[in-house]
Amino acid sequence: RPRGQAEDVVFVPHTSACGQCALCALCAMERPADHVARLKPIWEDLCGRLGVELGRRQKWWAVLEGRYCEPQRHYHTLEHLSELFDHLDKRRATISDVDAVSLAIFFHDVVYEPRAGSPKNEQDSGALFDSFGQEALPAGEPLGLAKGELIAKVRGWIVQTATHKVSGDAEEDCKLFMDFDMAILGSNWERYELYSQQIRREYIHVPEAVFCKARAAFLSSCSLGSSLVFASETFRQSHEVQAKENMAREATLLSDRFATFAMPARLFAEVVLSPTLKRHRKTTGCGLAVLAALGFTALKPVAAIGTCCAAIGTCSASALLGLRLAFGARYEKHPYRSRRPNSETVVLAGSYNPPHLGHLEMLRHLSKVHKRVVAVIGVNPNKKYDVNPYQRQELFRAMIQELGLANVEVTVWTSIIFVYARSIGATTMYRGIRSWKEDGRAEKYLEFQNLVYQIIFGHWPIPTAYLQAG
Q1: Angle in degrees, 0-180, between the axes of helices 286-294 and 275-284, rounded to the nearest 10
Q2: Which of 51, 77, 122, 301 is geometrically suited to a Cys-Cys bond with 138, CB 3.0 to 4.6 A?
């Protein structure tokens, strides 16, 4: 048993390719060398068709191989990618955009942390693919148009694997990709059983009673419900019946296993998975939520004291935030005064729709002051744009290159800006404004959101500064 593992968790030890353990087939499947030999040429061919430079394709292959060989993975490995490419090869003639489906296969599980769960893993995988696309895919002609469409499509598919829900009018490529990812459910029982064991090992941190109850409930709902597992007619005909039989069989085995646990383990699982716990967890945290769900009322005096302290802290924080908003942000008027250069990294966020001379003037000024400047094109991934953000990115890059601003970069970001700023070690988040009269209220509201959210996430806030557009 791993160090610190709960007593009621069954951990099946096995040695890689030991030849003797009950899971020796599983051992053999986890050896990555064979899968690297198969997948790397697929990656090279794909990058060649897309026009990715040699250095970048090698860099990103190292990222993919390293990610899919992480120690917490047992099913979501290079073996999983090989199986998906087996399905792609069988149905290649029916796929309209093989390159898009191939990219989705390579990146759909590139971030996988079982403790983080869904949809965070899928969102982070989509974001990492987005980074690959921005860095490695060529701009094309017209600048950024086809590139942006490809990135948006593949990223959308990757994020969609959090639910695998596909509308009836979705393109067939999307349906097939989702079904490739779900096809393991409709495999023969021997392979399915290995898959279920691999999933258990990825969730070894979950007490077995909790795992059995939760997974049995999920599998029962999938296998007994009227909804279909697969999206495409092809997979519904070939895999649907077997998938529901497999899930029903595993659900029965897990339920039987759950019934053998001692009463404390079963009670704990009931509490952890109860709706009451879910409601309390939002406000009290997991530990207190468990106690609340069990009906411990002795915490009420402690909770009252905690509420009082929280109220005092909230009032103090509100006062400090008010002072920060009113007097804390730096504001530079145009024309900008020269400042002493520093070694800081900063971001200048905006929609840049379209990039114009005022943006370039601000970036020219910041490039003289700071060691690294990143122009962040903020994007709502659910919004349609007449000029997609990747077109704006490529146009902006061309303008910056023409000006010779070697320390200025342009990136597209689809989440909260301060998350990106923190990820690159930025010390200041700049915003461009026309005037306080025109933009002041909206900009201060954004600044307030940035301050509050960073505090909520447990970070010391990155300050906002303002530049008057020229």
Answers
A1: 140
A2: 51
